[in-house]
Each structure stands twice: as C-alpha cells, then as structure tokens.
Amino acid sequence: MLIDCFINFIKENYINVKTRIPLLGFKKRGNLMNYYNQNSKEVLNSFGVTESEGLSTQKAQVQLEKYGKNILEDKHKTNPFILFLSQFNSFIIYILLFAVTISFLSGEYVDAIVILIILSFNAIFGFIQEYKAEKAIEALKKLTGLNAKVIRNSKIKIIDSNLLVPGDILILEEGNKVPADARIIESASLKVDEAMLTGESVSVMKTNSVIKGTKVLADQKNMLFSGTAIVKGRAKAIIICTGMNSEIGKIAGMITEKKNESTPLQRKLNILGKKIIWITLALCVLVFIAGEFRAGAVSFITMGDWPNFFLSMKEWFLTAVSLAVAAVPEGLPAVVTIALAIGVKRMLKRNALVRKLPSVETLGETTVICTDKTGTLTMNKMSVRKAFTFTKDINLLSIKNNKISLNKEQELMFRTGLICNDAQLKNNNSTEVIGEPTETALITSGLKVGLRPSNIEKKWNRVFEIPFDSLRKMMSVVAQNTTSKSKIMYSKGAPEMILEKCTQIMINGKIKKLSLKEKNIILNQNNSYAKDALRVLAFAYKTVSKKDHSENNLIFLGLQAMMDPPRKEVAESIRKCKLAGIRVMMLTGDNGLTAKAIASEVGIIGNVMQGSDFSALSPKEKLDTIDLISIFSRVEPKHKMEIVKILKKRGEIVAMTGDGVNDAPAVSSADLGIAMGITGTDVTKEASDLILEDDNFTTIVNAVEEGRGIYQNIKKFVNYLLSSNLAEVLIIFIAILIGMPLPMTAIMILWLNLVTDGLPAVALSLDSIPKNVMNMPPKKKTEAIMDKGILFNVVLVAILITAAVLGVMSWTANAYPNINPEIQLIKIQTIVFTLLMLMELVRLQVIRSEYKLGMFSNKILVLAILSSFILQLVVIYTPLNKFFGTTFLNVTDWIVMLIATTVVWLIWKAITITPFIRKNYSDV
C-alpha cells in the first residue's frame, strides 16, 4: 500500500540517517564467560589488574574506547511524524481516503469534509494515546545514572558511573546501587536486593567463593548485577560487564527488539475493509453499467446523441459514487476509536490505566495470562505465618487485634526476633517497617503478638553484634538490660546451624538439656515448613559474662516460618479467569517449591518446570510441553520471552503481567503487557500497554470484562452498519435492474448515512456490558468481526429491508397514479428515503434486544435516535426540502411506512427465534 511504502521510505531514509545512534551503545561485546566459575585472582588476572592498584588512567581510557560508555541506549527513537502517519496505516482508512477523493472530484464537498473530520479525529486521538509509548530505555537509564567509588592508580576515586569500564575495582557499601555487573573479590555480611532482576522477594546473601556448574542469575552468589541494591554489608568487586553487555543491558536489548505488531482488532478491521471495498466496487460498477444501459447508452452512441450520453454517464457515475460512499462504513474508525476511548475511561475508574488505545480490545480476546509471582500474585512482603516451640505451635494468621497469651519461651523467641534485627519502624506509632524483607517480617510478627520494638529498646541496649555471614548462617546480638545491667546474647539463623550451637532448650519456661530426640523433632518441623515453601529461622539465647561473646552453649527457643503471602483476592480472580476460558500461568524467578505452594494456594494447578530445563528442550518438545506446564520456576528474562513467543505461535492472545525489570522484555513482547502501578519499576511501566494502579490481579479481570464489552459493542455496530449499507446498495441495484425509478438521489444517500451512521451508531459505544460476558470463552484469534452469525443477520436484514422498500415503492406508484411523473418520483424517493431511516433506527434497538439490553438503558442512544428523527423531519417539512429534493408526507404515508417497518422486524424475529438459527447463526 502507498502509505506502507511511504512510512518505510521515511524510516529508511529519515530515521536511519537523521536520528541513527550507535547500535546497542557499545563497540565490542566483552568476554561473557562464566566468571562465577573462577576464583577472584583468576578474574583479576584476566583483566590485568590488581586488587590494590586497580586500573591506570591510561588503561581505563583504552577500555572506555573499546567497550563504550556504561549506558543503555535505544536502537531507535520514537518519531512523532512517523507515529502520526501510522494512524492512517489501515485498509479501512485507505477506503475512506479513496471515498474522500471521489467525493471531492464529484463535487460532494460536505461528505468529503465530514469523512476527513472523522479520520482526523481518529488519527489525533490515537497519536496522543501512543506518543509516550516505548520509553522503556529512558527508564532503564535512571537505574545507571549514578556516581561510583572505584580504585584507580592505587587511589580511591569517585567517578561518574557512565565512565566505568570492565576491570574497574568497585567499592560498595550498604545503600549503594550496583552500577555494573561485577565479580565479588571480598565481602562482609553482604546482602543484595535482586528482586527487580530475578523476581525473588528475599534479599540474597553474597559470597566471594567459587561456584561450580552453570547457574541462573539467582544462583550466582558471587556476582553483583547492575541496577540491584546493597541492603547490608560491604564489598569489593571487579567489573566484568558494562552498558548493554550487562544483564540489565540484555533486557534493554530485548525490549528494543520488539516489533510493533497490529492488535487482533486492527487485523480484523483490515480484513473486513478489504472485503467491503471489493464487494462495493463490484456492485458500483454493476450499478453504473446497468444504469447506463437502462438510460439507452447504446441508442445514444448509435444515434450520435453524445451530449445526452455524457449527461447520463455523469448522472449514473455520481449515483455509483454516492452508492460507494454509502456502502463504505466511514463511521467505523470513529466508532471504534470512541468505543476504545470510553473503555479507557471506564477502566481508569476501575484502577486500570491504558497506555495504548487498541489494547482495550486486546483484553477482551486474551486467552492466556502469564503472571509473575512476586508483587503480582503475592504481597511482595515477607510475613511470618507460623511459629513453633515445644509448648505449642502458633498460627499467626489466626491472631486478631494483637491478642495472644505468650509463655516464657514464646515471649523470648519473639523478643529475639526484635532485638537480633536491623530493621526498624518508620516511626514509633507506625506499623510500617523499613529494612530487609526477612527482618521486617520478624518486626511485624512481634507487633502481632503484642510486642513493640520501642518498649523492647527501652529495656535492652545493644552492646555487641556478630553480623550474619554465609558460612555461619546466623546473627547474634548482645543486649544489656537497662535496669539489672545483665547481658543476654540473642541469636537467629538457619535451624541446622542454630541447633549445632545449642546445648539446652526451654520448655514451659524451664531450661533442660537438648536431647537428640528433641533435635530431630525440631529438624522434622523445619522440613515440614520447608515443604510448604516457608522460609524458616531458628531462635536461641544465653546469658553472657563480660568476656564471653562466643556463639556456643545456646538455649533453643523455637522457629518462625515465613513467606511472601498471596493477595487475598487473587484466588477469586483466577477462578473467574477459568470461568471465562482464560488460562493463568505463573512465571517466576523463585524456586519450584515456593512457586508451587503459592500457585496451589491461589488456584493455579499444574506441573512445575525450571526455566533452564524448558529452554533446553527442542522446538517441538517446547510446543508439546507448553500445554502441560502451568508453573515455570527459576525463569530468566529470556525464558519469559521464549514462553510468550511460543504461546503466541500457538495462536494464543497472551497477556503478561510483571513489576520488576526482569519482567519488562516479556511484558513488551506479549500481545498485552500489564505492569504493576505501585510496586512496578518505571521500566516495566513504560514497556507495558496497561498499568494496574492498585497492583491488584482482580483489576485484570475487571479490565478483561471491559474489553469484552467493548468488543461486543463494536460487533453490534458492524452488524448494524453493514446490514443498513447493504440494504441501500441492494435497493438501488435491484430497482435499476427491474426498471423501477431511482429510489434515492446521491444527496439523500449521503444524508441518510449522516443521520443513521452518525450519533446513533456512535451512541452504541456507551452500551453497558452484558452480564454474561465473563461466562463465555474468549473469541478465537482467527474469528472475524463479521462471523457467520453477523453475516447471516446482515444478509437477512438487508434482504427483508430491500423487499419491504421495493414493495412500498410499488404501493406509492399505485397510490399516486395521476400526479405529475416528476412529482411522483420525488414522492417515491422521499418515502424510500424516510422509510430507510425509520428501519435503520429501529434496527438499532432490535440488535440491542439480542443482548438483553432495555430500550431506555442507554439514554444517550435514545437522544441520538430522537435527534436523527427530528433532522429527518427538518429536511422534509422545511424549505430545506428543495435542497434535498423531498416533498411533504401525509398521515397515510407514515402509516404505510410504520406497517412496513413492523412487518420486517416481525418476520426477522420469526426467523431468528427458530432453534436451528439460534444454535448456528446467533451473533450474540
């Protein structure tokens, strides 16, 4: 198509030449070997640096020229001119542009201007909606635009993170953001929040030890990744990858590689447009030829009456053109745009912010929702669920109003969780906790059983600390009582490590020796919690002397088991998805046990597979396996994208939800990308089509319902529009063939389209959503807008209207036999003109009744119908009748028209209520 060619020409010759930037933002891809398999000395040697000296200024400059700046760059930038042009890149628009051209050439300026206004509105609205799209890389840049502390020329320097290069020695502390991918050289109590990259809600303990084998990002414990945050401790690390070579850079590359694909609705409208244009052109050619022969074209030519021949030719050409304009649904783009815009407004009220207009309709056709776990199905907040002591278990979920009676070991266990802790309340009167997720969960559990940190701090002062490390897997704090001055060591950590340090246990407030039997009971309880995907910490204490700060001879207190809990409303939302025929799949960076536990709790039932295992399958095995797996664990960004692409290849309409940076590529490549509005990163929001302002999975279900309702409204309009337009074409075509007068003039056809395809048709967009819309399966991807039900209705209605109008034409000729032939023709044309208007307006309500919608349920539609009827009366009973070529209609004329209209819809109802038709040709 011409517009396609023009857009491609601009892209190739304007964008690539005028705004081209260096591909991927680096000049040479670095050595992406598995540095986590090497020890720190080997990594330092591979870059030719030492830990104490770092890079020299000269070598850093060489590296900068070799690898480029540590920035993320887009492969292309959004060009407003191209974006605006793309709004016209639709076959249905091509038809309307053709109609505008013909209308101008034939002198029908009013109609041409009306169509141009409609097209302009459609283009401007779409342009405004989409202009801020594709900004994902700009959001990613925010994650790397920092300063960094490095060792260069044996000195510690602070430099712009954009100037970091592979081989630089980084110094990182608590609160720092990691500016590039790096291998840890040394660390102390180092914990890193990698949720934005891996999807895991728990911060990760890091080490400088060598890791063997091939590992996914979440298991590369001696690596730091750009964009993640240091939660605790400090580290020294050597940079191995910068810019687009980093893991976050690879994500940026995935996002920019996304191709702009048309939505299902756009594809269906294009197919419909092509069918309409060819059928319309064929009918118009036939009308023109039939009209010319009827006017005596042969006799004109043989007798040499060329003036009359050309006059006749012009008349029938204008009739054919008017018929073409009548047949072309010029209101369709406007109605679709308005329907989608109204959907955007409705969804915003239900906390769903639509970024790209066509996405509204895509929601209605969604067949699969691929959802992230952390922050999407879960609260993204660790919460203690159960606590264990030898006295009894405590289910913290059942505690209400912080009312619970604690015995001595239980009080000591929860107190230990508060004291042996670096998290803190935002303020003393608040319940909002700031800190590492696991430690915030312990503060919250203490609050839940009635212990406030502020009260504990008044009684106990922290005087000594042994921080957590990956070898001991425990943390201890020595606190002194402000009154008695006695000191107690409070310890927490992995159950097996704490038990090794314990020689005694407290049971019912009494201390006794810890036996092997009791150890086994504790370990079995730990294993039971672990099987339920709960993260378990053990707690112990001992009274210490001034010199004894060793973590030995502890007294065991109990266990606390926690997890990132699912949102309360998610289970019901997933049930509704199943009822609506929508498959829900979980794609998470977490481990399989945790993923399956959360999935089963919210109602996602199915097998679990690790992302790397799926990626290792052959293409055929992947296609066969995708239907069997509902939960994918340990997935990386590339795995998510691959799963989305395979589902799309199978013909699914895929929605992908996410919040972290790791979700952005899959969100961007899905048919419908959904980002979390509260916990979502800027990257994911900018890559998405839809943002959930409340981070609520239920909002997706609400949005799907709106999308389906909008699609139904669009189908109603297509049904109404095409049946009316086809009837107009058939009436004129058959009347010419059987020798009847021309039923309507060109201006009548154009006016009829204006009053029936204008406000009334647009008002259909405001119809409410059918109550049963979520009890039906999603429409198939291959299903046309004009399915067999609509096609049957369109053809049946067009035939019935045509028969009724031709019958009324015959009655009119017989009812007024003695008047002047010219006046009789005007009478016939006025009746046909008005009768069609009546039938089409009644047709609107008939279609709506099929969807169980009351006549007065859409007040704007009622007003639109009344407005159209009044406008019709104006062109009949005012001086404007001279311009339109109409005449007065008497009471008898109106009675005949009302009878004809009633008969048509009674016959239509009688045919469509038959069981066979309802079963095979229902358009509902």
Describe this structure in words.
This protein is an alpha+beta fold and 924 residues long. The chain has 4 domains: 151 residues, Calcium-transporting ATPase, cytoplasmic transduction domain A (Distorted Sandwich), CATH 2.70.150.10; 261 residues, Calcium-transporting ATPase, transmembrane domain (Up-down Bundle); 157 residues, HAD superfamily/HAD-like (Rossmann fold, 3-Layer(aba) Sandwich); 178 residues, Calcium-transporting ATPase, cytoplasmic domain N (3-Layer(aba) Sandwich). The protein is 51% helix and 16% strand. The strands form 4 sheets. Strands 10, 11, 14, 15, 16, 17, 18, 19 and 20 form a 9-stranded mixed sheet that branches. Strands 8-26-25-24-9-21-23-22 form an 8-stranded mixed sheet, sandwiched between helices. Strands 1, 2, 3, 4, 5, 6 and 7 form a 7-stranded antiparallel sheet that branches. The radius of gyration is 37 Å and the shape is elongated.
